[in-house]
Amino acid sequence: MGISDEQKVGFMGSCKRKLISVVGRIKKLGRDDPRRIIHSLKVGLALTFVSLLYYWRPLYDGFGIASIWAVLTVVVVFEFTVGATLSKGLNRGLGTLLAGALGVGAQHFASLFGQTGEPIVLGIFVFLLAAASTFSRFFPRIKARYDYGVLIFILTFSLVSVSGYRVEKILELAHQRLSTILIGGATCVFISLFICPVWAGETLHNTIASNIEKLANYLEGFGGEYFQYEDNEESIIVEDHSKLHNKLSSLQAYKSVLTSQSSEESLANLASWEPKHGKFSFGHPWKQYLKIGSLTRQCAYQIESLNGYVIPADIQVAIQFRRRIEESCKAISTESGKALRILASSIKAMTNPSSSSKTHIENAKAAIDDLKHTLKSGYLESSDLLGIIPDATVCCILIDIVKSVEKISEATDELGRSARFKSVEATVSPEKSSQLLHRGIVNPVFDSECGDGDDHVVIRVDNNNINNNNEAGEIGKCQGNLDVKPTSKGEIIVCK
After folding, report:
1. Would you call 164 exposed, middle or buried from its count of C-beta atoms within 10 A (0-12, 13-18, 19+)?
2. Second label for 134, Cα 20 to 30 Å away, from 55, 263, 298, 454?
């Protein structure tokens, strides 16, 4: 039975739609992270280069069929980040070198036992080294850093010792394989390091800061979404669930933090292999990033519990009680979010957190005291217990979140000390600084008005009944390295 024209048209249309869909996904993947496209080109370049060992006759005459090991090395060693490539390259090189040397030595030692005893001795060597190497892979530290090297060691030793029993020119064979593997590994490392490098350490650094910022976004927007009332009735606005989900979509980015542990641990491990790059030294405290990441996830899980109460449910709610706790709860969530945002900015800029982050935490604690006073008031005795349970639970979660934010702040301070982050404290003379503080017009902040350099805005002077230009002149005279900028917002910005 033949295919009708309508079926052909339908089939062609379906193929066209699938092709368009695939092309769209490819474009989106490239737009989301252009480094993926660059990495693909780098791998192609590396493979083309090592293929010359086969294509160019003089090189092929020198290495022979062993040239294929260079191609295989590029395929298995070249990874997305510099740290991953260095880790695999060094593991493969050292594992091959050590196993090759031991394999040749084992073959030479076994040959002393004659034709009859040689295979027995080689079998014993293979058994002992393979068993010991495999057992070593169960140690967590070796598993994390040297697992690939141990695997290559077992493979290479077995190949060299076994093939050496049938191949007379064992030294020549080992030399060719080792040389081509080193050529392939060196090619990967060189291209990864010097052509648009992707650093695992920088990725981890930005990931931790971004995760903290995601929590800040949610906490700053929580109060406005949770406390919603109708204008004319003492009842909560109950929106359609789909509408509310769309409205909160911009706040749901924190969910990615919940599953970030494995990627953070992997990046920290790979970052420890990388040389000094940018602001990151070889001994950068990557483990401290894991501590901050763990505390961030703990806070994200608390936010996940909090998020469950944003969607209205068919339960009785004490509206008067919710109105009484509204101000305190909003202050707690907003101040916590502001503190996290400052911490995220300080990590990104690699500067010590300004004192304003601790100020926001103290403000959140003060709001907690007000909230506790409300919860202990006599109003609770006359309230419906079932109606206040949801809001009371939200209060408890917010209190726990403030504790988590404080722990993140302490861990960030520790990171700043370990990594020697730059200080962003004011460089105004102590006398002038104390005068301004006494007048209540100095508030350290982060800002972008001084550009994207390492030193951002260090002081914002709120202008209350003073002349901007005069005040700017007074501050500018205190230090010669300050750039003082009066703004139209009634403020004075002082930059390093």
Report:
1. buried
2. 263
pLDDT at res. 446:
42
For the chain, report the end-to-end CA distance as a whole number of angstroms: 82
3-state secondary structure of 475: helix
Same domain, yes or no: 343 and 227: yes
Q: Hey, which residues does 493 pair with through a beta bridge?
A: 460, 485
395-406 burial, b for 16+ CB within 10 Å, e for fewer? bebbbebbbbbb
How many domains, in total, are found in the chain? Answer: 3
Q: What is the pLDDT of residue 452?
A: 44
Does residue 10 form part of some domain? Answer: no
- For residues 34 and 31, give the distance between their C-alpha atoms in angstroms, rounded to a whole number: 6
Looking at the domain assignment, is residue 490 inside a domain? yes
Measured CA to CA, the distance from residue 322 to residue 326 in angstroms comes to: 6
Distances from the Cα of 282 to the Cαs of 133, 145, 274, 279, 305, in angstroms? 29, 16, 7, 10, 39
25: domain range? 21-194
CATH number for 219: 1.20.58
Of residues 164 and 125, the one with the higher pLDDT is 125
Segment 38-64 mean pLDDT: 87
Indicate whether 4 belongs to any domain: no
Q: Which ranges in 420-490 belong to alpha helices (H)?
A: 430-438, 468-478
* Alpha helix positions (H), 137-260: 140-145, 147-166, 170-194, 200-226, 241-247
Query: Does the reported pTM lie above 0.90?
Result: no
Helix (H, G, I), strand (E, B) or coil at 442: strand
Query: How many Cα atoms occupy the beta-carbon half-sphere of 496 within 13 Å?
Result: 16
